[in-house]
Every structure is written in C-alpha cells, then in structure tokens.
C-alpha cells in the first residue's frame, strides 16, 4: 500500500468523521430552538439573543483561521485536536443553559463557533498525508 495510513486506520478515521459530522449537525441545530428559552431565562429581547448567536459566526472564522494555521503542521495529532474541539463545543453547549448574562452567552456561542471552525478545517484535512 503506497499510503502512509493503513486500511484499519482509514476505517476508524472515517467512523470518527461521520460521528463528528453528526455532532456538528446537532450543535448547529440546537441554537435555533433554544433562543426562545434563552430569551425568557435572561429576560431580554429576541434581538439581544440574536446578537449573541452572531458570535458563533465570529468564532467559526477564528477557529477556521487557527485551524488552517496549525492543523496541517500537527501530523496525526490533528485527530486529537478535532476530538478536543468537539468535546469543548459539547461542554460549552451544556453550560449554555446555566448562563446568566448576555455577555456570557456571547462567549459560549463564540466558543462553540471556534470549535466548529477548527473541526471543519480538521475534517477536511483528515485524509491528507505526506
């Protein structure tokens, strides 16, 4: 085999990427339905919540930029970075329900976005090898 990655490793990576894709879909899908609950919990307007959700876009940009700079240089460790980014996004999403201010809500959406940006770049580079 001319590849530097064995067939079992490729299958494992494929399973991991499918699970990461499912996780990303769930992370992206949760924000919309929870906006009403967050608005009521924080006793604020929908516009304020929407501004907080926009932080996710800034986070995606930051995560993709950081991922583009470091993931390719990480070799096989890039899989660990993708996994770590997904764990951070999941924990942050869980903590979002305990947020007590719009500033903290902005930080949580930014964190989820940053993890999503890292994951997105990492998934695209997962099969690249030297």
From TrEMBL:
Claim: Endoplasmic reticulum is one of the keywords in the record: no
Protein localization: Membrane
Record-level Gene Ontology MF annotations: transmembrane transporter activity
Topology within the bilayer: Multi-pass membrane protein
Domain Major facilitator superfamily (MFS) profile: 13-130
Spans through the membrane: 12-33, 53-72, 79-98, 104-122
Keywords: Membrane, Transmembrane, Transmembrane helix
PANTHER family associated with the record: SODIUM-DEPENDENT GLUCOSE TRANSPORTER 1
Protein name: Major facilitator superfamily (MFS) profile domain-containing protein
